[in-house]
Write a structure and sequence with these properties.
The chain is of the alpha/beta class and 264 residues long. It has two domains: 144 residues, UDP N-Acetylglucosamine Acyltransferase, domain 1; 50 residues, no CATH class. It contains four helices and 29 strands. Helix 3 packs across helix 4. The longest helix is centred in the C-terminal third of the chain and has 14 residues.
C-alpha cells in the first residue's frame, strides 16, 4: 500500500494493502479501496464509495457517494480473468454509478476518456470504450462492448444495446432505446431510436463553420431513402469532401457488429 503523504484519508475508510493513492487525494468516510486500485493526483472519493479490481483513475476525478467502480462484469461468460477498468482525468462520477472492467472476450479493458460527466445511476458495462467529454445523463445504461466517441450526450433513462457505436458529437434524446449504430453528429430520439437529423446545437456550440454544417446537411439528405453503406461508398469515391463529411463516411463504412440508424 502506497499513500502519498499529502493525501487525506478518513479514519473510517479502508485502504487495502497494495493500493496506490496519489498526491492530494481525498478519501472520505466509509470508502473501500481495493488492493489493485491506482488513484492519480487529486482524486476525490467523497464517501461510501467502493473501488475494486484492477482499476486506474486519472488525476482530478471526483467520485460521489455510493458509486461502485471495478466490480466484476455482469456477464455470465466472465470466469474471473484478469481485466481492467481505466478511467481518465477530470471525470465527475455521480451517485450510484457503476462501471465494470473488461472481459477476455472483449479485449480485457473498459476505458473511459477525460472530462466526462456520468450522472446519478448510470451503468457502464464491460469492454465499453468511451471518449473524452462524454455526458451520460441520469440512469443511462450502456451494455457491453459499446463504443461512445468524443462529445456525445446520451439523455436520461436511455438504453444502448451491446456492440452499438455512437459517433462523435451525436446526441441521444431522453427515454430512447438505441439498438443500431449512430453516425457522428446525428440526433436520435424516440422510444425506439430514429435518426431524425443532425445535432445542430452541438455543432454550433463547438464553432463548426456554416459551410461545414451545410455540407453535413446535404450528406444527411443524400443518405436518406437508400442503402446507407452503398451511398456512403459512392460518396467516398466521389471525393472532394470536407473533414466532417469524410469522418461520417468513414464511420459508416467502418467495422461494426450492428446495423445503422438511417436518416428518415
Amino acid at each position: 500500500m502506497t499513500i502519498h503523504p499529502s493525501a487525506e484519508v478518513h479514519p473510517s475508510a479502508v485502504i487495502e494493502p497494495g493500493a496506490q493513492v496519489g498526491p492530494g487525494c481525498r478519501i472520505g468516510p466509509f470508502c473501500v479501496i481495493g488492493p489493485e486500485v491506482v488513484l492519480g493526483a487529486g482524486v476525490e472519493v467523497k464517501s461510501h464509495v467502493v473501488i475494486t479490481g484492477w482499476t486506474e483513475i486519472g488525476d482530478q476525478t471526483t467520485i460521489f457517494p455510493f458509486a461502485v467502480l471495478g466490480e466484476v462484469p455482469q456477464d455470465l461468460k466472465f470466469k474471473g480473468e484478469k481485466t481492467r477498468l481505466v478511467i481518465g482525468a477530470r471525470n465527475r462520477i455521480r451517485e450510484h454509478v457503476t462501471m465494470n472492467p473488461g472481459t477476455e472476450g472483449g479485449g480485457g479493458v473498459t476505458r473511459i476518456g477525460d472530462d466526462g460527466l456520468f450522472m446519478a445511476g448510470c451503468h457502464v458495462a464491460h469492454d465499453c470504450q468511451i471518449g473524452d467529454r462524454v455526458i451520460l445523463v441520469n440512469n443511462v445504461g450502456l451494455a457491453g462492448h459499446c463504443i461512445i466517441e468524443e462529445d456525445v450526450i446520451v439523455g436520461g433513462l436511455c438504453g444502448v444495446h451491446q456492440f452499438v457505436r455512437i459517433g462523435r458529437g451525436a446526441m441521444i434524446g431522453a427515454l430512447t432505446m438505441v439498438t443500431a449504430d449512430v453516425m457522428p453528429f446525428g440526433l436520435v430520439q424516440g422510444p425506439r431510436g430514429t435518426l431524425d437529423g443532425l445535432n445542430l446545437v452541438g455543432l454550433k456550440r463547438r464553432g463548426v463553420a456554416k459551410a461545414d454544417i451545410a455540407e453535413l446537411r446535404e450528406l444527411f439528405s443524400d443518405l436518406a431513402g437508400g442503402s446507407l453503406r452503398d451511398t456512403a461508398r459512392r460518396k467516398l469515391e466521389e471525393g472532394g469532401h470536407g473533414p466532417l463529411v469524410s469522418e461520417v463516411l468513414g464511420f459508416i463504412l467502418g467495422p461494426s457488429d450492428r446495423s445503422f440508424l438511417a436518416p428518415r
